[in-house]
Amino acid sequence: MNKNRVSIMWPTYIGEFYNPNHLEIKNPLLDFFTQYKNLNKNSRSGGTVLSPTDKSSEDKYEINDDVYMSKYDLHLQKNESYQKLMKFTSDAIMAIVTQATKTELKSLDFEEKNLTTLIKESWFIDYKKGGFVLPHTHPQCSWNCVYYVQLGDDVSAINGSTFFQKTRPPSQTNDFGSEYNTNTMLKIKPIEGKLLVWPQFVMHGSTPYYARLKSPNRIIVSVNALVTNKKIN
Fold this sequence. Notes:
The protein is of the alpha+beta class and 233 residues long.
């Protein structure tokens, strides 16, 4: 006898992973970023951040210092603590990919041991009071990540948090049956040592960081990655 079933089509995976070694790497990372800032100009291309390939003109966005961005090649730097963070990030990406692609791994006879996380870009962002990032996506990768290195005193889902915008079309009715499709944004509370991982196509950004007096800057690391199969790629 046939059984009833409900299929979930094209789910959006958003992973939250907690680094057990965050306290070990936090201060070395902050020292690394401070040294980097002393040696490198702000790579931010406009007064708001769109993506690593954004080339916004100065007449469209005022360039200011409320957000500092490094270049996008920090994973190529030989910093021990940063490399430990990249290893943690790679493992987290692999964890969410193997869950998201269970059907493909089975039907295409992929073996997890042949899959490799390829970090394409990684950079840090230093937010001063008022700093934020406009909604955007990142091209030429499959997964995006944000890692919270330092948060400051005021931690909440509306203060300097990462947000995601709904990918489904808007609901056309307001009945109870459409309630599942009414939320247009997800805000995730930042926690030091937490890594967020999500698919490249999801529009995302950050709410303004309203730092209290003498509160330290909010510092995060962003990563763009692919997952390759060494038997094919």
